[in-house]
Amino acid sequence: MQLESIPHEKGVYILTLRVESLISLSLAIGFIVLEPGLYAYVGSARGVGGLRSRIEHHLSKDKKRLWWHIDYLTSRPDVSVTCIIYVLTYMDLEKALADELCKANCWSPAVKGFGSSDKKSFSHLFKCICNTTTCINEALDIVKNLHRELEVGIIWLEHLINS
User: Fold this and answer.
1) Count of domains in the chain?
2) Cα torsion at 43, 15, 123, 53 (round to 10°)?
3) How high is the pLDDT of residue 60?
4) 123 vs 7, 40, 118, CA distance in Å?
5) Domain that holds residue 55
6) Which of 27, 37, 76, 97 is 20 to 30 Å from the Cα of 83, by its Cα?
7) In this predicted structure, what is the pLDDT of residue 69?
8) What one-character DSSP code corresponds to residue 4?
9) List of the chain residues with pLDDT < 50
């Protein structure tokens, strides 16, 4: 994947993550256990550096400090990012995107409160309960539908990484 192709603009994103082994974590939201499988994480990049900086941070295994819940997953050797879907927008669509994944057929909320400390979403981490292709296509469709509903010129793009 070429990080240089990801813009520095503000936006929201969905990362799909492959969890290779059972994971147990103690976080501020409680003790969590994740089974192996495909997960989706919804986040936003509204600060300096935009999408590229935030996604680059998530892809880095060597983090100096674990800032967000997702850092506790993406820093692990048994977790890999397989797909990135992002939306260029100045609008805060993180909650809307997470709420749509909550209602999706192929995604199930994985951990209550994960990644949503600053939002009123149930969760920003979801487990794929269908096959990988169907789950990724459904996430992409959710982004496309959000684009159509808002009619604000949002641009969506997809980058696949060794899925």
Assistant:
1) 1
2) -20
3) 87
4) 26, 11, 11
5) 3-160
6) 27
7) 87
8) G
9) 163
